[in-house]
């Protein structure tokens, strides 16, 4: 029977065990094994049944068992110790406190998705998991961050596969009362409500849930409340669900509503208002408009407000794939940006921020990533290669500058080791290396024998095999109206066979089916009698992406062949719960995107943390970390004539590696039945690679390279009632207006004769027309370097030319700038002279996108 209404009744926990409730209320349990063990002890079977979610578990556990434990002094004391441990974790000084830095005071981190725990499914893939890991690492490091997102009633979706291989989506509703969430309330108990004015005099209201992710508060806005019309209650129904307008409403809520929620939060908690705003992708870009409108309300102009907002804003771009970037119909955006929503903000100014460079401003789509870059003085990609790709991709925003000068840096993603390292491996480290820190050089020592490490890895593989069987048996029953699964389903996979994993979302560029290029060859690899290989595959396709669903179908149908089905499986409903067992259970992690479309990719990092070796195209993070010790590179067939040939060549390389390098190495056993060469690689991966891949390294980089500079810049520009911001705005306007008249009239050179030598000095004098600008408004630079052909200066270097005193010219607005370049290298040499704006509050030469080049 179907209930008409559902809610969760929370258990009554005996007062002696109140520690359990406190521990369940903070999501730190999701990465803290000792806390999990405390819960598991209550009822190991029930614990597994609740998917290791303490909140669901406490709601389900037999009250008699709790009463019994309340009388068990040993257990009560254990629980108290864990509570003390949590309390000191939450309050003691950590890395950030040791810096003694006054800023940033508070960093507001906005993301459309957060993957923190399996039981809080508010993510679709890598972007969300990364956001979750960012919060956890920020918590461990004591970084004063507050996170903002949306609460989606049905999360993303849950996937099942029909017998003919087609993806089916279900949207089971979550009950927030059964989750570790609390409503943000005013002291009188009334819930905080955030309101956005919509067109046609409608209003969108949201309540604010708060979750505690260790030390980090996470605010999630939720429109499913009676104050809204039925239609508007659906705004936060699911992640990336609807089309244009629905998505736009979600993003307006995230950005504008998010800033409003933060104001209430900071008032209620007494915490500092944020001095840094970090947008994890463009989806939260409207936060900049809300902040600009607030400054306009304080009397600033749009341009002045923009300076203030930019100074403290960090934008992270996550994808070079156009479909991954939100672009809205311009007219639609315009209809929402009313003065009721954003008082004082001229919609034309706001709309201009989203115009793609070079596009017709009247008709261009409204691009959220472009707006993000215009709103943020600090921007980054998520791996070194992705940084380069982004500088080229967005270079048109800074016309006249080479890609190297485009102000987008990179910080390579990381993953949260305590979340993603298997408990068995942590246990082994604790026992043998004397540390629970699995990322430890001691993995190279003899403290752990090869045999022992290999046997722990086998346990991890077995755990995956059992999990896969359980999932497939359940999926079979679901697909076949409750019929029980045939015997072979209980027998799929083998804990002693070399295991290759592949799991991720299924956009085309990730090439789920590359492995099927030559089905006969793959079949031979899987069924090799001496050196068999097995594949475990998972992934969700976006519900609107039929192309992705066809790829899944093709793969599922391949796995259904009777002679293969025990060696290659597709596990439905990829999520964090599956991921937790999948990465540790694999020996090899496969990634074969179309280079360079994988911005970073984090699943391979998680696999490496569990001693898996990577087999990957040289893309994303792997382009930085690939080494013989850590796995194998699938060569990229850049020279291929077309994409079909490229796929064919890259797949052939993949088969070759599996057949001739990987399988032989795995099955080459020494006297103890251990693959000695394999173990060397596994140890090096654990000892030297995994420490580099941690989210703590990533968050420290964010603090030092982006958050701190953003906080400082924000303080600088906002000082004395934002006087510097006003000056900077006035100066930028003046420079922009005057710029068309700025040019290099001519350049005189001397000092080198017809046959210059290394060590010679090249003297330059540039006559520069400044129009209405003052000499100190600009820098005049020689840009020079190797010039193998007419169009380029490679790895250019720069020297600033100085204004020549008293060098009057016929034209008062023309000044002479002079300087010297030493020719320090032999070979083809080229130089040019350019004029760029100069102001102490600019962070990069390219910032205004203005340059006047000689010639
Ligand atoms: C890590 C992870 C991802 C992201 O994997 P990529 O390799 O970056 O595509 C997606 N989903 C889940 C459940 C994950 O744990």
Task: Give a short overview.
The protein is an alpha/beta fold and 855 residues long.
Mean pLDDT: 94
- Biggest sheet layout: 10 strands, mixed
CATH homologous superfamily of the largest domain - what is it?
A: Glycogen Phosphorylase B
Approximate shape: globular
Rg, alpha carbons: 29 Å
Q: Supply the CATH architecture of the largest domain.
A: 3-Layer(aba) Sandwich
Total number of beta strands: 29
Q: Structural class, please?
A: alpha/beta
**Uncertain segments of ≥5 residues (pLDDT<50)?**
none
Number of self-contained structural domains: 4
Task: Give a description of the structure.
The protein is of the alpha/beta class. The protein folds into four domains: 15-91, no CATH class; 107-413 and 703-719, 3-Layer(aba) Sandwich (Rossmann fold), CATH 3.40.50.2000; 434-690, 3-Layer(aba) Sandwich (Rossmann fold); 742-853, Sandwich (Immunoglobulin-like), CATH 2.60.40. It has 28 helices and 29 strands. The strands form six sheets. Strands 1, 4, 7, 8, 9, 10, 11, 12, 15 and 16 form a ten-stranded mixed β-sheet that branches. Strands 23-24-27-26-25-28-29 form a seven-stranded antiparallel β-sheet, with no helix packed on it. Helix 25 links the parallel strand 21 and strand 22. Helix 1 runs parallel beside helix 6 (73-91), helix 12 runs antiparallel to helix 28 and helix 19 (450-479) crosses helix 23 (576-585). The chain is globular. The termini are far apart. The model has no long low-confidence stretch (mean pLDDT 94). Residues 125-126, 129, 504, 574-576, 579, 601-603, 606 line the site of pyridoxal-5'-phosphate.
């Amino acid at each position: 029977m179907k209930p008409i209404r559902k809610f969760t009744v929370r258990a009554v926990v005996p007062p002696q065990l109140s520690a359990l409730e406190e521990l369940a209320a903070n999501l730190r349990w999701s990465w803290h094994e000792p806390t999990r063990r405390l819960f598991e002890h209550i009822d190991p079977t029930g614990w597994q049944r609740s998917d290791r979610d303490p909140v669901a578990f406490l709601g389900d556990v037999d009250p008699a068992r709790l009463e019994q434990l309340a009388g068990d002094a040993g257990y009560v004391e254990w629980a108290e110790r864990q509570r003390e441990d949590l309390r000191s974790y939450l309050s003691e000084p950590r890395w950030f406190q040791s810096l003694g830095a006054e800023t940033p005071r508070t960093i507001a981190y906005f993301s459309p998705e957060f993957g923190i725990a399996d039981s809080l499914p508010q993510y679709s893939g890598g972007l969300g998991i990364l956001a979750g890991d960012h919060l956890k690492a920020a918590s461990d490091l004591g970084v004063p961050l507050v996170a903002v997102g949306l609460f989606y009633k049905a999360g993303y979706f849950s996937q099942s596969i029909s017998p003919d291989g087609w993806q089916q989506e279900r949207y089971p509703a979550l009950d927030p009362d059964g989750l570790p969430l609390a409503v943000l309330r005013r002291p009188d108990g009334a819930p905080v409500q955030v309101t956005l004015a919509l067109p046609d005099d409608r209003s969108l209201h949201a309540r604010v849930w708060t979750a505690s992710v260790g030390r980090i508060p996470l605010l999630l806005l939720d429109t499913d409340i009676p104050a809204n019309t039925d239609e508007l209650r659906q705004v936060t129904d699911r992640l990336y669900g609807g089309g244009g307008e629905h998505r736009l409403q979600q993003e307006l809520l995230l950005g504008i509503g998010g800033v409003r929620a933060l104001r209430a939060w900071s008032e209620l908690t007494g915490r500092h208002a944020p001095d840094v705003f970090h947008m994890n992708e463009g989806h939260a870009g409207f936060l900049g408009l809300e902040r600009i409108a607030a400054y306009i309300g304080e009397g600033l102009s749009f341009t002045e407000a923009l300076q203030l907002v930019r100074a403290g804003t960090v934008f992270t771009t996550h994808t070079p794939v156009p479909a991954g970037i939100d672009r809205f119909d311009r007219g639609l955006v315009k209809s929402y940006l009313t003065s009721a929503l954003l008082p004082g903000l001229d919609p034309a100014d706001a709309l201009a921020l989203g115009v793609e460079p070079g596009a017709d401003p009247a008709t261009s789509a409204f691009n959220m990533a472009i707006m993000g870059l215009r709103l943020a003085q600090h921007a980054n990609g998520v791996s070194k290669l992705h940084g380069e790709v982004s500088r080229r991709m967005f270079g048109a925003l800074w016309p006249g500058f080479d890609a190297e000068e485009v102000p987008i840096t990179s910080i390579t993603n990381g993953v949260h080791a305590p979340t993603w390292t298997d408990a068995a491996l942590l246990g082994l480290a604790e026992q043998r290396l004397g540390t629970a820190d699995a990322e430890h050089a001691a993995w190279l020592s003899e403290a752990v024998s090869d045999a022992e490490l290999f046997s722990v890895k086998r346990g991890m593989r077995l755990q995956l095999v059992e999990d896969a069987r359980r999932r497939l048996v359940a999926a079979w029953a679901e697909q076949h109206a409750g019929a029980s699964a045939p015997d072979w389903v209980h027998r799929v996979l083998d804990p002693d066979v070399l295991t290759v994993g592949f799991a991720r979302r299924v956009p085309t560029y990730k090439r789920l089916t590359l492995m099927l290029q030559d089905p006969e060859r793959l079949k031979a690899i899987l069924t090799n009698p001496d050196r068999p290989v097995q594949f475990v595959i998972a992934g969700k396709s976006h519900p609107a992406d039929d192309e992705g669903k066809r790829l899944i179908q093709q793969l599922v149908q391949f796995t259904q062949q009777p002679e293969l089905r025990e060696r290659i499986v597709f596990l439905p409903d990829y999520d964090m719960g599956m991921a937790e067992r999948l990465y540790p259970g694999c020996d090899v992690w496969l990634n074969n995107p179309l280079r360079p479309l994988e911005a970073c990719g984090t699943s391979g990092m998680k696999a490496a943390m569990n001693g898996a070796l990577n087999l990957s195209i040289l893309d994303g993070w792997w382009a930085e970390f690939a080494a013989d010790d850590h796995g194998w590179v699938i060569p990229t067939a850049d020279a291929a004539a077309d994409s079909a040939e490229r796929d064919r060549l890259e797949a052939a390389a993949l088969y070759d590696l599996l057949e001739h390098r990987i399988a032989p190495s795995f099955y080459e056993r020494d006297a103890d039945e251990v693959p000695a060469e394999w173990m060397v690689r596994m140890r090096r991966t654990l000892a030297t690679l995994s420490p580099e891949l941690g989210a703590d390294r990533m968050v420290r980089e964010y603090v030092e390279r982006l958050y701190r500079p953003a906080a400082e810049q924000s303080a600088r520009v906002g000082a004395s009632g934002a006087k510097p911001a006003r000056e900077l705005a006035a100066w930028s306007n003046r420079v922009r207006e005057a710029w068309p008249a700025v040019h290099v009239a001519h350049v005189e050179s001397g000092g080198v004769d017809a046959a210059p030598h290394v060590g010679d000095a090249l003297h330059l004098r540039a006559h520069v027309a400044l129009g209405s600008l003052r000499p100190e408004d600009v820098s005049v630079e020689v840009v020079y370097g190797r010039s193998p052909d007419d169009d380029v200066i490679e790895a250019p270097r720069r020297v600033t030319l100085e204004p020549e005193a008293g060098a009057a010219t016929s034209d008062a607005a023309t000044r002479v700038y002079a300087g010297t370049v030493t020719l320090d290298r032999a070979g083809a040499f080229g130089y040019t002279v350019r004029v760029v704006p100069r102001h102490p509050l600019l962070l990069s030469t390219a910032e205004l996108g203005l340059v006047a080049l000689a010639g």
